[in-house]
Every structure is written in C-alpha cells, then in structure tokens.
Amino acid sequence: MLYNFNGTEGEAPEGNLIIDVDGNLYGTTSNGGANDSGSVFAFSVGGTFVQLYSFGNYTNDGIGPASSLVLNKGVLYGVTTEGGAHRCGTVFSVNLESKTEKVLYSFRGRKDGAIPVGGLAPDGKGKLSGTASAGGSSRGTAGNGVVFMLNVESLQYSVVHTFTGLDGSQPVAGLISDGQGNFYGTTYAGGAQGYGTVFQLNSAGVLTTLYSFTNGTDGSYPYAGVALDSSGNLYGAATRGGQYDWGTLFEIIP
C-alpha cells in the first residue's frame, strides 16, 4: 500500500494513473478534496502525496474528474464529467509549477457533446482527442455521444464524429492512438445489436465499426477502452455476456 486517501485530499480515484520519466505518479479523484468535488494529485517517487488542485466551483472549473490524465511540458490535461459554464463537463489543464487550473473548453450539451468520462489522447501535434458519452444532438444532452478534438494552443474545438446509435452509443472510454493518425475506442451500447462496439477513427475522421457485440459468447457492453499491440491487434473487456454472462476478454484483429 502506497497511500490511503482521507477524503479531504480526494476520494474515489476512478481513472488510471500516469507516470512521468522520473517515476512520479499523477491521477484524479472523482470526489473528495477541499470542496468534495474531486481533485488532481501527484505522488512522488519519494512517497510524498501532493494535492495539485481541488475542484469546487461548479460553473467555473467543473467537478467530478473520473479519467486518467495527459502530461505534456509540465501541464496535465483531463476532463470533468460535470460542471463548467454549461454544466455538461469540461476539458481542463493543471500547471504543475503554479498548481493552477484552467478550463480549456466547456461542453454545451448539444451538438458538441456532453458528459466526457474517458481520458484524452494526444496526437503529438498539440491536439487532444476524446469522447463525450452523451450529446451530439440539438436537443440538450440527448444523443449518442461524439468524438472531439481540441487544440490546446488555439483552444479550437471540433466534433470529429457524431454517433448515430447504429455505429455505437455512449462512448464512455477514452481513445488510444496507433501513432499514425488512427484512433481506436469502444462504445458501451449501440451498434448493430445494441450491445456496444469497437471502432476505428482514421485521420480523415472516417469511423469504421470493427465489431458489434451480440450479447452472446462474445460479450456485451464494453465499458473500458482497448489496448493495442505492435501488430495492430486490439484487446479489451466486455462487462457482460460470455458463457456465464459475467463478461469476457476479447481480441480483434483488424
């Protein structure tokens, strides 16, 4: 055991940890902190816990970060599932030196998406891609979710793909990049059978459904994202289905 959260420093860490070149760990808690709205923290190689930021202003900084972070040039990037100017979640940054937070984008909950849950994926060119689990429609937070891209320098936001339901719905997991401009991810529901999908999004923004789950021996409702090996094969987990209806591990060879 490395550390026990006590609530005031954070509570319910749901996202994956990331590690820098020096071995320091960074993560988020979805609750707790000074205002019980979540926090961003660091854990050093020497065993020191530091709360970098504590969320608390619903409309200004967002609340409920539940995903992993991205670290680039001394700045952490992540998403909050709620809050922001339109109360539908945010993309934020936290400067490690100054321990200050900045909202880079506030989701409006309409065509631009809402309730981002999964982590962000960098493209190495100053842009971050991610998913919003709802929105994509002009009718409030209705919709099946979107894939978005944000330029962290210009703060230009764009929707790369809007899910229709037939190609997937509720993309709660983050994306993974193959380093060649393609991104891979899952949708928790939707697809041909309604039980979730695995998809590829190429550099031109064209989405291809690689697999639609059937709720049979293949599984159903994949909540987490996928892992990518050096041969381009994808691996993941489905929360239900399989022989005993308790979930499956799967491999997809594109």
Low-pLDDT residue spans: none
Instruction: Just name the CATH architecture of the domain at 1-106.
Output: 6 Propeller
Helix and strand succession? EEEEEEEEEEEEEEEEEEE
Describe the largest sheet.
4 strands, antiparallel
Strand order of the largest sheet: 1-2-3-4
Strand content: 35-45%
Q: Helix count?
A: 0
Proportion of residues in helical segments: under 10%
**Gap between N and C termini:** 39 Å
Q: Roughly how many Å is the radius of gyration?
A: 18 Å
> Which CATH class of the domain at 1-106 applies here?
Mainly Beta
* Outline: globular
Can you walk through the features of this model?
The chain is mainly beta and 254 residues long. The chain has a domain at 1-106: Neuraminidase, CATH 2.120.10.30. The protein is built from no helices and 19 strands. The strands form 5 sheets. The protein has a 4-stranded antiparallel sheet with strand order 1-2-3-4, with no helix packed on it. The radius of gyration is 18 Å and the shape is globular.
Task: Please give a handful of descriptors for the protein shown.
254 residues, mainly beta, Neuraminidase, four-stranded antiparallel sheet, 0% helix, globular
Question: In summary, what is this structure?
Answer:
The chain is an all-beta fold and about 250 residues long.
Write the topology of this structure.
Layout: E1 18-19, E2 25-29, E3 39-43, E4 49-54, E5 70-72, E6 75-80, E7 90-95, E8 101-106, E9 121-122, E10 127-132, E11 146-151, E12 157-162, E13 176-177, E14 183-187, E15 197-201, E16 207-212, E17 227-228, E18 234-238, E19 248-252
